[in-house]
């Protein structure tokens, strides 16, 4: 992270922190490690963000839009100039869960040999950090202003509101929800909802409620 100019490290429910082994391996970048923010959940870590990118090597059913790291990086950088963004990595052994991917609006994958796409976590972070660094250079040539996206909290409140209305109207059976909300999350994730758009949608839901 430090090599590529990144400083904001968030750790979600780490087994140990601080950790002597981690400090020893942080060779010259102990300042980044010591300044890390520790969160208990991914939702907590994503508070205040407007765009989150899930990093995964696995194709997933009902996932948000999937891009290569090179395609994703300039889009991330574009929004990072105005709003908080996040790149989300899973654990070394199992990566991200489907629920964690569902919290993100974009999915990025490192192009690799399809017969052996595995990278360890450190290598994956380095590749994406490099692409973000390159994305900064690409953005300098772009004059198009980034749209102001709705924040993570606003979008999650919208999903909660939407689910309540779908249950109240009988469209969604909470006993047999199937995958309706997953599909709706995927649909809205593709649009990159703006704050005003979320307000309009919630206004519609409130009118339906009345």
Low-pLDDT stretches are none
Number of domains: 2
Structural class: alpha/beta
Estimate the strand proportion: 5-15%
CATH domain class of the largest domain? Alpha Beta
Helical content stands at 40-55%
The best one-word shape is: globular
What is the topological layout?
Elements: E1 10-12, H1 20-25, H2 30-34, E2 37-39, H3 42-45, E3 49-55, E4 66-68, H4 69-80, E5 84-88, H5 98-102, E6 106-109, H6 121-139, H7 152-168, H8 180-191, H9 195-209
Parallel strand pairs: 1-2, 3-5, 3-6, 4-6
Helix pairs in contact: 4-6, 7-9
Please tag this protein with its features.
single chain, about 210 residues, alpha/beta, Alpha/beta knot, Helicase, Ruva Protein, domain 3, 2 domains, 4-stranded parallel sheet, two-stranded parallel ribbon, 9 helices, about 45% helix
Protein architecture, described:
The protein is built from 9 helices and 6 strands. The protein is an alpha/beta fold and 210 residues long. The chain has 2 domains: 10-139, 3-Layer(aba) Sandwich (Alpha/beta knot); 152-209, Helicase, Ruva Protein, domain 3 (Orthogonal Bundle), CATH 1.10.8.590. Strands 4-6-3-5 form a 4-stranded parallel β-sheet, covered by helices on one side. It has a two-stranded parallel sheet with strand order 1-2. Helix 4 crosses helix 6 (121-139). It starts with 9 loop residues before the first strand and ends with a helix. The relative contact order is 0.14.
Summarize the structure.
Helix content is 45%, strand content 12%. The protein is α/β, with parallel strands linked by helices.
């Amino acid at each position: 992270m430090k090599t590529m100019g990144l400083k904001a490290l968030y750790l979600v429910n780490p087994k140990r922190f601080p950790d002597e082994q981690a400090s020893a391996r942080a060779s010259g970048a102990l300042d980044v490690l010591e300044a890390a923010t520790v969160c208990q959940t991914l939702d907590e870590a994503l508070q205040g963000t407007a765009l989150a990118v899930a990093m995964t090597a696995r194709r997933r059913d009902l996932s948000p839009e999937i891009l290569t790291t090179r395609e994703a990086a300039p889009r991330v950088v574009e929004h990072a100039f105005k709003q908080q963004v996040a790149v989300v990595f899973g654990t070394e052994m199992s990566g991200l869960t489907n629920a964690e991917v569902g919290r993100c609006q974009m999915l990025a994958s490192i192009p690799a040999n399809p017969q052996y796409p595995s990278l360890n976590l450190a290598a994956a972070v380095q590749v994406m950090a490099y692409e973000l660094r390159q994305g900064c250079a690409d953005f300098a040539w772009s004059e198009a202003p980034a749209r102001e996206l709705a924040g993570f909290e606003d979008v999650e409140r919208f999903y909660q509101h939407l689910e309540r209305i779908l249950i109240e109207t009988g469209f969604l059976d909470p006993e047999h929800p199937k995958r309706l909300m997953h599909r709706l999350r995927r649909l809205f994730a593709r649009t990159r909802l703006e704050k005003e758009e979320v307000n309009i949608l919630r206004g519609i839901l409130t009118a339906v409620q009345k």
